[in-house]
Amino acid sequence: MAFYNCSNLTSVAIPDSVTTIGDWAFYDCSSLASVIIPDSVTSIGNSAFSKCSSLTSINVDDNNNNYKSVNGVLFSKDGKKLIAYPGGIEGCYSIPDSVTDIGDDAFSYCSSLTSVTIPDSVTSIGDWAFSGCSSLTSVTIPDSVTSIGNWAFSGCSSLTSVTIPDSVTIIGNRAFSFCSSLTSVTIPDSVTNIGAEAFSDCSSLTSVTIPDSVTAIGDRAFFLCEDLTILCPENSYAWQYCEENDIPHKPLEETSPTTAADTAQPLAKAAAAPETDSETAPEITAKPTVEAVTESPAKTKSHRWLIPLILALVLLAGGAAVQLLGIFDILGWLVGLLG
């Protein structure tokens, strides 16, 4: 914490005599724009450059055996761990494919970061990794990630959606706390543990789906989510948790999707004509309809001539029931002529 909150500090060139940069060393140095790290440094602590809102580059001597800088971003020498992203860089960032570990506090308080692309190579997201990224609107976590650290996305107040893959098993304490724009979350079947206060103070959160794979939910996991309804299987651990903590909840029903073929099948059966002798067409009583007409003989014969003509036209469209109706009326017409 040697230079903690030094608001007038604009640049730093660390001397060769220094081997360690401690935790929080330059935290909240709001005017700090650039840092030069010599080859002598072997250790850099957590949050060493966090909340430096003007910082645009962290440069490392090429001869340093432990760290390197790529476009101002601090990495481990082998490129597998992203250690610190300068808080003054604006816009989008794509994490290199070489990275497997997003370190603790790596992007914390990068308030100008609007979107980040996380590659499939990443397996873990550290504690506080994206905390305080107030301009970050959406995050897609790849299915290579198995754990989301404590406070990982806490305070991402513009975050409206997050995709959690089936690979994640643990959601850390306060991982998504204070995400005031987050409206819904679906927990995948792979998750077994939701940490304490994981979604606390998410004031816009209205729906969380929790599967029966979850067997542990920490204290106050949904604290101050006043409009929240949890969807979960009846008699599951999540259901019991909701009962014990007076959280509104509904049963999570398993439904199979309805396809167009499913909808068309009953209609096709209804319209199909009998295909075998064992099938019978529905009974149609057409005679009473004709006999109910009380008109002069001439007019009645005229109607009897029109009915089979109309039915003959309909007959062209097909259908067993229509065919029977046409036959009955044609017979009635012939009887009328002979009579």
Helices and strands, with pairings:
Blueprint (H helix, E strand, L loop, with lengths): L10 E3 L6 E2 L12 E4 L5 E2 L12 E4 L6 E4 L2 E4 L4 E4 L6 E4 L6 E2 L10 E5 L6 E2 L12 E3 L6 E2 L12 E3 L6 E2 L12 E3 L6 E2 L12 E3 L6 E2 L11 E4 L4 H9 L3 E3 L8 H12 L15 H5 L5 H19 L4 H19 L1
Helix pairs in contact: 4-5
Description:
With 339 residues, the chain is α/β, with parallel strands linked by helices. It has helices at 237-245, 260-271, 287-291, 297-315, 320-338; strands at residues 11-13, 20-21, 34-37, 43-44, 57-60, 67-70, 73-76, 81-84, 91-94, 101-102, 113-117, 124-125, 138-140, 147-148, 161-163, 170-171, 184-186, 193-194, 207-209, 216-217, 229-232, 249-251. It has a domain at 283-338. The protein has five helices and 22 strands. The strands form six sheets. It has a nine-stranded mixed β-sheet with strand order 6-7-8-10-12-14-16-18-20, covered by helices on one side. A four-stranded parallel β-sheet has the order 17-19-21-22, covered by helices on one side. β6 and β7 (73-76) form a beta hairpin. The radius of gyration is 36 Å and the shape is elongated. Mean pLDDT is 83; it is low at 255-307 and 311-325.
Features:
339 residues; nine-stranded mixed β-sheet; alpha/beta; 5 helices; four-stranded parallel β-sheet; single chain; 20% strand
Radius of gyration: 36 Å
Q: Please report the total strand number as a whole number.
A: 22
Q: Residue share in helices?
A: 10-25%
- Largest sheet geometry: 9 strands, mixed
Q: Which term fits the overall shape?
A: elongated
Measured by DSSP, the beta-strand proportion falls in: 15-25%
Content-based structural category = alpha/beta
The low-confidence parts are 255-307, 311-325
Instruction: For the largest sheet, list the strands in their spatial order.
Output: 6-7-8-10-12-14-16-18-20
* H/E element order: EEEEEEEEEEEEEEEEEEEEEHEHHHH
* Oligomeric state of the chains present here: single chain
Distance between the termini: 116 Å
